[in-house]
Fold:
Amino acid sequence: MVHLFTSGFSEAGTEEGKQLENELCSLARQSGMRILGPNSAGIYCPKAGLTTRTDFAKESGSVALIAQSGGNYTYTVREGARRGVMFSKAVSYGNAADINETELLEYLAADPDTRVILAYIEGVKNGKLFVQVLREAAKIKPVVVLKGGITESGARAAASHTGVLAGSERVWDNLLRQAGAIRVFSLEELIDMAVTFSYMPLPRGRKTSILGVGGGATVLATDDCTGAGLIVPRLSERIRERIGRLLKEESGTILGNPMDLSLEAWDAGFYQVLSILAEYDAVDLTMVHIPLGLAPYQSSVQHKLWDFLLEEVVKAHRELAKPVILVLHLPSFGEDYEWILNAQRICYEAGIAVYHSIGNAARAVDRFLSYHERKLAGIRG
Amino acid sequence: MVHLFTSGFSEAGTEEGKQLENELCSLARQSGMRILGPNSAGIYCPKAGLTTRTDFAKESGSVALIAQSGGNYTYTVREGARRGVMFSKAVSYGNAADINETELLEYLAADPDTRVILAYIEGVKNGKLFVQVLREAAKIKPVVVLKGGITESGARAAASHTGVLAGSERVWDNLLRQAGAIRVFSLEELIDMAVTFSYMPLPRGRKTSILGVGGGATVLATDDCTGAGLIVPRLSERIRERIGRLLKEESGTILGNPMDLSLEAWDAGFYQVLSILAEYDAVDLTMVHIPLGLAPYQSSVQHKLWDFLLEEVVKAHRELAKPVILVLHLPSFGEDYEWILNAQRICYEAGIAVYHSIGNAARAVDRFLSYHERKLAGIRG
Structure:
């Protein structure tokens, strides 16, 4: 196989570029040689010790990525690693002059090292075959697709980028839905799905209890979760009473679902609240969110409270039967930054799914559940 | 005026809480005393040296904030300052037992120190009067509203938080639109609008040229801008040629709109590209985006390239007739973090609007233009 990093072929939009690419392909066909690219940033396969960048993780995992863009390939592998997503294989396939998304998809569907496939696609040349292969792949393992170039101007950009015909939003939306792929709309959402499939135990349903710091943040968190398709059920009087008994002081907290945590208000460990919720039938999973930069403390004091919260979340994840996920907002200021990076690492080492916004967390859980519901419907049907 | 920080009144949902709040109000009325709160985090007025937190900025500005949530008030003031938004007044009004959102809005509409009003509202008691006052305020200056509790569960949370009846999504959507308010859906978008009104010169229209690093990032940026209501026009052959002449090497860049910058590819300054675009009739504004963690360099080398880019953007903002805005993604890893913080400060000191995602930047520009179009229609009509 020859890997062509260089650009200046069909994506340049010139006759010369197209002709060069065609010549390249026919030369390769004659000699039985395969071509990756041109305009490709290469292959990453940590198990085989193969990488295009020294800063990619050496650790192997079970997530595969195919990306038509080299930049998005690099970003997803690096950013994924920081969020605990480890890769089996990742391929930047560029102009797809010879090896293309369809062939790669077919290969990864059968690859025993790959449990989840992520794809960033700008366009395909043989739509019918692509749909067939995608449908088969999606039957075997989750395939998460980010389609670039869904607007007219975006499609024009895609044509200049990788020389493809991008197709319309409506066509792609139908195509991906019918093939059973999971559609996302940003690189962050693509990585969110990898985090979810890598770490999240399957909840029994959408009924979510929300626990966080700050009354207004709690109200907005509830809107975001409900808006993304989760259910935020009321807690029964009995459960509210049981939790209430753990409180040192009652005012300034919202005791219910959502719950506004005032960390100082808890006499007993926060773990106990999570364990009461885990026993409770009307709750399928718990989302804990920490909005940063809010508490009226010096960072060091605040960070100690959060350290405690984090320990309790890790304990709950290890010992309780229901999923707990964590939302850590990325702060736009320095004081909480190191804490966040460290907390994120602690979480993925403990196997807890971490997201950077409540909306993104809720959408990921919703897509995760929808995927499993479809699978179940397929088995039953 | 008495400011009541304490909670445990109507928001507690108990008869006792409601009664206490009523007693408080009638006592106040008898003595001619006004009450802010209860459940309020206070007032911030840097001009008068009045603050509830030592970490709020001492500098005055022209943005006012009313927030029903103390946490959201604190977050918006602190985060706003980091993004260059300085406040005339900010008020956390809590349960609004006496002083309420309507009265505050009326006051701020007439306040000569306030040019823009931001509002986080969970619910109002006298809807009719509120709409009247909001409509009058919105005629005088931009009023940006984030409504918390728009879903059924969110409304339940709002009732526990500040004791309000939150009202339905449909009612609020109509109400805000008809009153001429600018509606946003997150605290980040609320601050984005303050940044936009504080810094952005009014573009002549929606025609945006997009310049950034990375082909895939460029494709997604175009989808995000078009999806948010901006127009990404083609560049004429003449303009493409003029810009092309500034290029050292041609391949690996997308020369058009969107444009994929490869910083090493430019022989002349990046400023010259921006100045060609500023002269060009078919472009109303330029968005420059830097997706972090992409370039195949050590951070220090990468940061020098970005420093250069930043200098050129600052120069373009100072010298050219059309708006330039900048998108700096918040990285989820440390190496680029200090650079971002510093770049953000340089930008707001130079008066350049900075956003943290392309979607958010595009939505802010779209809302900014829609606001001015409505004003113009109002004057004409």
Summary: Residues 358-380 of chain B form the longest helix (23 residues).
